[in-house]
Amino acid sequence: MSEADRRITDDLLRPLLSTSARFWVLVVFLGAIVATGLGTWVYQIYHGFGMTGIRWPIFWAFYVTNFVFWIGISHAGTLISAILRLVNARWRRPVTRCAEAITVFALMIGAMFPIIHLGRPWLFFWLVPYPNQRGIWPNFRSPLVWDFFAITAYLTGSVLFLFLPMIPDLALVRDRTTGWRHRCYGVFALGWRGTTTQWNRLEAAMEIMAIAILPVAVSVHTIVSFDFSMAPVPMWHSTIFGPYFVAGAIFSGIAALIIAMAFLRTFLHLEEYLHPVHFQNLGKLLLMMSLLWAYFVFAERLTVWYGNEPSEMAVFRVTQRGAFAPLYWTMVVCNFVIPFPILALKKTRTIAGCVVASACVLVGMWLERFLIIVPSLGHKYLPYSWGVYRPRPVEIIITISTFAAMSLLYVLFAKLVPIISVWELKVGSHPAHRPQTVEERDSEQALFVARTES
Amino acid sequence: MSAAYALFSDPESAQAAVDRLRAAGVADREITVISSEPFEAHEFGSRDKATWMFRIAGAGGAVGLAFAYWLTRMTEQAWPLPTGGMPIVATWPNLIIMFELTMLFAVLSTVGTLLVTARIPRRRPALYDPAVSDGRILVGLENPTMPLDALERAFAARPGQVKTLP
């Protein structure tokens, strides 16, 4: 093994093989917040939905905001990873697994919210499309059933997309550990040896998966947007919602990826692998998505304003200069006014600059989801169905705990699996091996024959 | 399973060993090369590259599409419930289910093909040496018919350098 390969292996396996006190402090801290969130959910189940601020006519509020937000965050990973794999971008190698892990955990958390949003969550299996005792199936014409299929397909694909390239690394850890760890990693390594056939099949499978997962990723958030745009609610019933949601999802997803990478770089000392150029490249993508987001918001707002339809204008006014205006303008500042100059100027597109911009984008995109849902539901077509929404502590605590849950899952994952693909990084670190020419191979063969004859 | 193998520190030596084994009359399919990373730039890394995986993925997608078509149509007709002025069998919304199940089946058939053709998960012992994870490249033969000294010559190895498994 070359010195470079040895260093890569040692550096990337170090977090798995040694545990610092700082890790346990972080796990206990995040675990406590998650436990508080779970306790609050149990409290909500016990006392009923009256503990939340959800009242007629606003039945979708924080929980559906979180659902849309986390499904959006999940777009970063698999989508970015798949695109970079397909175009064979060399700088992708340290980034892909960090990104794919975000997808899986964000999807898991996002998929929890329809269940949290149920009054009787123990009946969550009613969401699963199977016939009841009378032979009635769920209505496939309902967008909520589309969600089930889309999220199931995306979660399954994303888990496999994350797991398959992890197998060789799990085999590597299997060979470097003893005792129960050796047995555990051995099980997940599936008996991987690294034969030529296995490598070729794995790479072919990853290529197909990358092709297949891209349209699924786009479809998932389009279908989430259909939950809204299929409904006759002011400012929801719009053809722009599909691409608008997809663009927003990629936007927030990239921001989450930048923050996760900065965290990993600092705490796992991965400075040699996550270079400033990775952040600069992702920063450029974030800049492009910021511009695209601004374009979509302008297109949506202009169309509504020009149409001057009374019920839509009620929502328009309440967000532009009414009760929701502070949130709306905070969203604009966070999604465009702050990130645009930071990311546009090369001087400020540093790691710190990208992290600041990304943090703003996450805040802005959460607010965007909230502002899509609540003002429209509070200002439907007939004024008798107008209402207000005020979040209650139960919803706020559960929301905060999901951010802690995401962080906890990510920290534990980085502890159990090399967060950067070791074998892919090794492949990338080698100078390109030129294929041997026929002449070279023939001359080598002739030399060998001459030697054996002599 | 019996096996004989040698470990090489670089892909060029491994390639040379593979070539010598071929020159000694060993068939390609009997030679096993194991490494901790793919070496596509070398000839031994490109062996056995042809695969039906793309076609199988396509076939899996077609099965998913057919299944989704049957599922949506069958369930809507089983209890014909008028919904929102839509026809009982509503093609537009059904297309969404068809798309998702097409892609899901394509992904699952890809992974299934990978597992079968790469022979994982594997519980039976197979030719392997943990030194591979240290970056060494294993070139070996399972159930070799050649005598050990002939193998040592083929591997261009010093006596004792070729390892054997009982």
Uncertain segments of chain B: none
Please tell me the CATH architecture of the largest domain in chain B by its name: 2-Layer Sandwich
What is the assembly state of the chains in this entry? Answer: heterodimer
Task: Give me the strand/helix succession of chain B.
Answer: EHEHHEHE
Beta-strand proportion of chain B? 5-15%
Helicity of chain B, as a percent range:
40-55%
Q: Can you list the strand order of the major beta sheet of chain B?
A: 2-3-1-4
Low confidence ranges of chain A: 433-454
Q: How would you describe the overall organization of this protein?
A:
Chain A has helices at residues 3-17, 21-47, 62-73, 75-86, 96-116, 143-163, 167-176, 179-188, 196-229, 241-267, 276-307, 310-320, 325-337, 339-344, 351-378, 393-416, 422-429, 438-453. Chain A has a single domain, classed as Formate dehydrogenase/DMSO reductase fold, CATH 1.20.1630. Residues 433-454 of chain A have low confidence and may be disordered. In chain A, α5 runs antiparallel to α6 (143-163) and α9 crosses α10 (241-267). With 454 residues, chain A is an all-alpha fold. Helices cover 72% and strands 0% of the residues of chain A. Chain B has 166 residues and is α+β, with helices and mostly antiparallel strands. Chain B folds into two domains: 3-37 and 135-165, Alpha-Beta Plaits (2-Layer Sandwich), CATH 3.30.70; 53-117, no CATH class. Chain B is built from four helices and four strands; from the N terminus they run βαβααβαβ. Chain B has helices at 11-23, 53-78, 91-117, 148-154; strands at 3-8, 31-34, 137-142, 163-165. Chain B has a four-stranded antiparallel β-sheet with strand order 2-3-1-4, covered by helices on one side. In chain B, α2 (53-78) runs antiparallel to α3. The longest helix of chain B is centred in the middle third of the chain and has 27 residues, at 91-117. Chain B is rod-shaped. In chain B, 39% of the residues are buried. Chains A and B meet through α1, α6, α7, α9 and α17 of A and α1, β2, α2 and α3 of B.
